[in-house]
Specification:
107 residues, alpha+beta, Arc Repressor Mutant, subunit A, 3-stranded antiparallel beta sheet, 13% strand, globular
Length: 107
């Protein structure tokens, strides 16, 4: 299999929520915790939906369960790096995550 094949599989199997997480992590200058990541994603998603004419959009990540599932998937796929600081886990995008976003944009 080639890099293209692997990236294509990741791109096809990644949920829209996970893609939003990666995009927002790409814009961060330092690692952030899970709750802040959720807030950034939800705020950006709501702003986008309002700009599309949806007057009362609901957040993309509506529960802690969804937040935990999507961050675990990203971590398992090697798309995010997790740094533990005490009990807090800080998330940042990996080089593979950046490569996947570049691949997604080109496609």
């Amino acid at each position: 299999m080639t890099n293209y094949d692997y990236l294509s599989i990741l791109n096809n199997n990644l949920s829209i929520e996970s893609k939003w997480f990666l995009i927002k992590l790409l814009n961060q200058s330092e690692p952030i915790n899970k709750d802040k990541l959720r807030d950034i994603v939800n705020d950006s998603y709501i702003d986008l939906e309002k700009s599309r004419g949806n007057e009362n959009p609901k957040p993309l990540i509506t529960s802690r369960y969804l937040l935990d599932i999507h961050t675990a998937r990203l971590e398992g796929a090697g798309l995010v790096h997790v740094k533990e600081l005490g009990r807090m886990r800080l998330y940042s995008i990996t080089d593979l995550g950046k490569e996947l976003l570049n691949f997604t944009q080109r496609k």
